[in-house]
Amino acid sequence: MVFTVAQLAAIALLIWAIGDHPYDYYKFMRFVVCAVSVFAAYRAHEVDRKVWVWFYLTIAVLFNPFATVHLDRERWAPIDLIAAVVLLIGMVTARKPKSSSDQPKTDTLSATPLTEQVELDQPFDQSQSP
Questions:
Q1: What distance in Å separates the CA atoms of residue 112 and residue 64, rounded to the nearest whole number?
Q2: CA 96 from chain center: how many Å?
Q3: What angle do CA 19, 20, 25 make, to 5 degrees?
Q4: How far apart are CA 23 and CA 98, in angstroms?
Q5: Could you read off the pLDDT of 7-30 as tens digits, one per residue?
Q6: Tens digits of per-residue pLDDT, 89-113?
Q7: CA torsion sign, 12 to 14 to 19 to 20?
Q8: How many CA atoms lie within 13 A of 87 on its CB side?
């Protein structure tokens, strides 16, 4: 929930950045967008969304507050909008699917639930053979 609010704040700051603001606003926006993007990249990496990791890291590099990319306002406007759209799409598509813990895990070859399979470490009982 807190990260969702941070993502929405970053998106709002990016959209609002199209207007004319003091330089301190842009420094603050860079810090927020960079931090949110780095954390989003980390979360995307945890769920193996490799393409999204690259999207987020690209945004983090562009909006890095410590090594700034210097462009004029006309060039930043489309970049701000594209970054806002990428963050929004990433936020919407990152919704976790229903928990898979409710369904029994199966062996991929036989589709038999793993709880019903005999473990290989157990000694073979000949009385169970047909």
A1: 50
A2: 11
A3: 95
A4: 44
A5: 999 999 999 999 889 999 999 999
A6: 998 887 655 455 544 455 555 555 5
A7: positive
A8: 33
Q: Is the pLDDT of residue 77 over 50?
A: yes
Torsion of CA 99, 104, 107, 110, to 10 degrees: -120
Helix (H, G, I), strand (E, B) or coil at 20: coil
Exposure class string for 41-53: b at 16+ Cβ within 10 A, else e: bebbeeeebeebb
- Which whole number is the average pLDDT over 60-70? 92
Helices vs. strands in the chain: H and E counts, helices first: 4, 0
CA dist., res. 26 & res. 69, Å (int): 12
How far is 91 from 69, CA to CA, in rounded Å?
25
Phi, psi of 12 (to 5 degrees): -65, -40
**Nearest Cα residue to 42 out of 86, 83, 3, 92:** 3
Answer for the pair 64, 91: CB distance below 8 angstroms, yes or no: no
Question: What are the two backbone dihedrals, phi and then psi, of residue 106, each rounded to the nearest 5 degrees?
Answer: -120, 155
